Amino acid sequence: MVRYVINRIIYLIPVLLLLSLFIFSISHMLPGDPIDALVPPDEAADPEIREILIKELGLDRPVMVQYFDWLWSLLHGDFGQSIFTRQPVKKLVFQAIPATLYLASAAFLIALLVAIPLGTIAAVKKNTRVDYAAMVAALLGVSIPGFWLALMFILFFSLKLGWLPSMGHVDLTVNAAASLKHLLLPALVMAALPCAIVTRMIRSSMLDELKKEYVNTPRSQGLPQRMVIYKYTLKNALIPTITMAGLWFARLLGGTIIIEQIFGWPGVGLLIWNSINARDYPVLQAGVLILATAFVTINLIVDLLYKWVDPRVQLS
Amino acid sequence: MELARPPLSERVKAIYDRFLDVSGELFKNKLAAWGAVTVLVLVLIAVLAPYIERYDPIAMNQDALLQKPGLKHFFGTDQYGRDVWSRVVHGARRALWISVAAVLLGISAGVPLGAVSGYFGKMVDNILMRVVDAWLAMPGILFFLVMATIFRAHGFAESDWSMIIVLGIAQIPLLARLVRGTFLQEKEKEYVEACRATGESNPYIIFRQILPNCLSPVIVQATIAIGYLMIIDAALGFLGLGAQPPTPSWGNDLSAARGFMETAPHLSVFPGIVLSLAVLGFNLFGDGLRDALDPRQVER
To answer: pTM, whole model, 2 decimals?
Structure first.
């Protein structure tokens, strides 16, 4: 087990290195340069000011040198300085993380709270109207684009009914009620896709489990079906779902770029979006790298959890 | 030693029989049949767009700004008085063409890559899998976002091809991994052993013997990917990185509709409904194909 964990962590190194190289190169392929975004046009046109700024920002060095320099600083926990706001990148990113985590966890929670019962009921009542309704809902969840769902929710819940605010974020510690109100719409939008996928997953693994021999033993001993389902079948059916759900939590963290932009949610996604537009390389790179690292780490944890929950799983 | 190939007519007949088999299997499943019909309708709309449109999709009309949906304009008109129905129809044409072309691009590079990687294993395989892992760790739409920004600023935004390349490149690692997986299973089978024993060349074994047995999952994945790429294309348009205005595009139109959510909500409703239906159709069709192409799977 320990060896497996160490192996997996070692194996993460080339993946993260590749990723850092990739992120670095594409962010440097972004057109325009940060100087234009940084200073007013008349100053940007001045070659002297340009030269000073380029020197100061270290943009005159060869790209490979810039890359290794960046990587070296990263390894020392130094994310550099935002070209645009001149603030430390670390501060900007860490300020944005709580908002993204808040949103992603809420969406994840909603997705699981809906998907697990829905998938279970659909499997138990296979080929009935309930099942069909659940499956159609899941199909819609997979097919409707999140950004359009966001527009429709805003149209309906904010503009038409006036129940929920269409934009913004309030800190939970400042005003809990307002915070939850602002949270609900983006969280619902983000929950739709994972909810649909987990529902289908639970249903299909429940169906697999319900076919197995062990289900009959307690039933033949007189245990009510409901007990059998919740005590034995669901537990086993949840195992393959864990992997999927974990993966989706990781994806939720990254899938926030458009949703955060639509709802003006000040998370990592919005930070990345703004940094693309401002050509703020250090912030862009750090933001993407944080999300990607979170993604691979969560994947690793999920794999280990999988093994822990189901000792039958062979680790390779 | 290559076996004599059967005459063309027989091969065509074999393909035709297989097509009948698969479509027969497909239409047994109600949802899949709906998916197939939806896809067919979408294709028809795309092909016949110039005949279905009721107005020129880019012609402005000062006398009919922001009209509500009605008989004259099925889906209403936008802020320039352009007919939304015609724009949606032409948007379908664009979305379908771009996503199909992008998927074909992904297949043409991803399938050979996965085949070679799965067949030879070792070094090539290791590198490919690390690239795929790194690729999968890229958060969501970000890759598309950055690539589209790069293409745009280098002046490629005018053409559909920049979008096709951006979307297509992204399909390569996923398809490669899929093909690699099936290759790993197939290459252990007896017929491959037999080919090797008779001294067939590696390219012959890979492309003529193994690959045809690995295509089913690729077809399924490609079908579902078309729907997915339609969403990405629309999302990029929505973020202002899509087609140049006034090209009719679902994403661009939805983005513009954001400014009229209170006064003209129909603008944001119709393109989205059609987009969702299109994606739903490809999802259902893809799921159905998976069941029809792979009878080993248990029926659910």
So the answer is: 0.83
